[in-house]
Specification:
GO terms for molecular function: guanyl-nucleotide exchange factor activity. The protein is of the alpha+beta class and 106 residues long. The protein has 2 helices and 5 strands, in the order ββαββαβ. The chain has a single domain, classed as Ubiquitin-like (UB roll), CATH 3.10.20. The longest helix is centred in the middle third of the chain and has 12 residues.
Amino acid sequence: MVFSLSNRLFNIGVHYLDDNKSYFQMKARAQGSELFDCICHLLGLEDKDYFGLQFIDRNGNLAWLDNEKTLKKQIWHLKNRELLFRVKFYIPDPSSLVNEFTSVRS
């Protein structure tokens, strides 16, 4: 019997900015964008361009999950498969954001 990593399911924990955490089961061959889209849907997030997922790579450095690559190519080596949902870009004019959830106003 041949074991294929591409058919395997990954249990992935995602830590949010407010210290909450969610768990997802994703196929190893799924693109990073599939996981990111699930997270954005769960959060009701429309302004996706300003956020991303980070993980600690083999060298102990923070790396951004590439939405165009498969999960198995990026995080298969992680023991816990824990990712961080983080702000990727700060927008100079928050009033131009589509969703008020991403725009914090005082």
